[in-house]
Amino acid sequence: MPIIKDQRILENTWTFVADDAPLPGGDITVSAQRWTEDKAALSQHAGKLGVRLAPTDNIAALGEDLSLIKLIELNFPAFNDGRAFSQARLLRSRYGYQGEIRAVGNYMADQVFYLHRVGVDAFEVNHPKELELALSAFKDFTVRYQASTL
Questions:
Q1: Burial group, residue 131, by CB count within 10 angstroms (0-12, 13-18, 19+)
Q2: CB 117 within 8 A of CB 148
Q3: What is the pLDDT along the chain (150 residues), one digit of tens a residue?
Q4: CA gap 133, 37 in Å, rounded
Q5: For residues 17-54, b (16+ Cβ closer than 10 Å) or e, as one string?
């Protein structure tokens, strides 16, 4: 499934691994809980590592591990749950995270512009027909009143 990264359509090379699933090869993301519980085993993984954050996950718990994490997926369980906006902003501004931050789940294309402003630089799109719509959202506004993290 393609993703939008750096305002371009690219192939997704990452796989999310459920908490009870064995680790496959390649670049993987795991839940924050699995990261905390299996950090030693995960550090032996040959591919790149990422963490998927739920809106209720505590970013501070990852603080010292952020240099090991190449991708943070911010999960939107519902489009009206905006806590991932705050998580992205905190990752970029407070924690200085330089890796990829990707929106996944049930966000709307109308939110892409604002997510990008707070530090999200990649978007997993659930429906291929929404790729172009989400991509065009980066140009929704030409005047900005607030500073961006990117």
A1: middle
A2: yes
A3: 789 898 888 899 999 999 999 999 899 999 999 999 999 889 889 999 999 999 999 999 998 899 999 999 999 988 778 899 999 999 999 999 999 999 999 888 888 888 888 999 999 987 777 777 677 665 665 555 566 555
A4: 38
A5: beeeeebeeebbbbbbebbeeeeeebeebeebbbbbbb
Which structure tokens are listed for 93? Answer: 């501004």
Q: CA-to-CA distance for 13 and 70, rounded, in angstroms?
A: 13
Which domains are seen in the chain, by residue range?
2-139 (3.20.20.70)
